[in-house]
Write a structure and sequence with these properties.
Radius of gyration: 19 Å
Number of helices: 9
Strand content: 15-25%
Strand order of the largest sheet: 2-1-3-4-5-6
CATH architecture of the largest domain: 3-Layer(aba) Sandwich
CATH class of the largest domain: Alpha Beta
Structural class: alpha/beta
Number of domains: 2
Helix content: 25-40%
Distance between the termini: 36 Å
Length: about 300
Amino acid sequence: MAPLRTLMRPVGDNAVMRRFNVLVVQPDDYVNYAPFLGVAKSMYFALRRLGYDVRLAGNEFLRDATNVIFGAHHLAGEIAADLPSDTIVYNTEQLRADGALVEALTPFVSRFATWEPDSGNVEAWRALGLGSRVHYVQPGYLPESSTVAAETSTDIDVLFFGKVNPRRMVILDSIMRAGISLHVADGVYLADRDALVARAKILLNVHAADDSALEMARVAYALANRRALVTELGGGARLDPDLRDGVLAGTNAELAAMCRTLLADDKRRLELAERGFQAFSRRDLVATVRNALAQASAG
């Protein structure tokens, strides 16, 4: 594998604030950057709606633009010293007790404005003494967030998409043994994922670990696309009050029963999906990004 430094190819000179480069780090030996590519696209569209000149790129930073980096934890720490001072780091990952992510991100968080869509991460950075430039950026809605075709035959009862680790496998197996028709899609992203989701009556979210935060990118995707969402809500997870009426949430032991309830009642399922969409669409991502930029400019 080539050093990650070689993935960052500088173009241009003289940093300015009115042009943005939304940068997705794409290591040669890592294919799972696609999940945060969708979040990066939302940022791209939000900045465009604010009237900025915006570029979406992989592995290229610009010296004549404000770089918003997704996947900075995949970069070598010494790269931070080479980046323009107005760089913004957008973290998509949950901070954990083992500290590996903290170690990877500290060179960037200590230098640059950092945007966190997880309020728990903001608290964690502050506890570490690194929170002075870390800001909570609430996930929100844009019309471009609705990427799934609405008028599609729903021949999939329940769909789980994402990486299937041992914990998830145990839970998914238990749901199937309970008689739920479950389709599992590991390694399916972007347009292929949209096509599967369009066919699904219910989207299922299961935590990767016992102490996982709520996978808000999955929640946002489901709600933005008017899909009924059944989600695990474990001890480390928080569901914001404004979204509680639009999501069916419970322990992993309750997931099968919740799916069965919705599958037996199309009206209830469709009403849940609509409430979720209405609740999430009240979150204006453009306004959120505007405020976050003001905070970044203020230091």
